Prior knowledge:
alpha+beta; minor pseudopilin epsh fold; 2 domains; 5-stranded antiparallel beta sheet; 3 helices; 37% helix; elongated
Amino acid sequence: MPTSAAGNKRGLQQHFLRGRRAARAPGFTLVELLVVLAIIGMAMAGVSFAIRDTGQAVLDREAERLAALFESARAQSRASGVPVRWHLSEQGGFVFDGTDPGALPTQWMAAGIHVQGMVANGVQVNAIQLGPEPIIAAQQVAIAAESVPGRSLLVSTDGLRPFAVSTP
Length: 168
């Protein structure tokens, strides 16, 4: 048994520490459980964001990409003074007539994207005129995806503002 004599502090500390360890119940503390749950929650969130590529996201991404391509072709047309027309090709893609070959993409990035209709000034058309005039006719293209039946998006302009994506 340790005594409390001078110079014997070490023996007393070990005696008291042994008593604490023996009194502690086996298991996990609440803090340890909360830390584990937080780590699992963050891992689940990361996995759910990683597999989020749904048909809706694909359609949104293709619509935004088409609006950006229209604006790029419109800028090229204004810079060169050459009219640029956009229309669908027989191979399932699209064509920008009036631009350099290979300057702009000609295919959809995802499979199953199709155009439901093109309208210029309220009339159904086969091509969208993108320039070279700074102000063009009001035009819109409705695109849809096979993976999202019954939903389409409009890529449209009023002729003055840039092309933007909206819902019909």
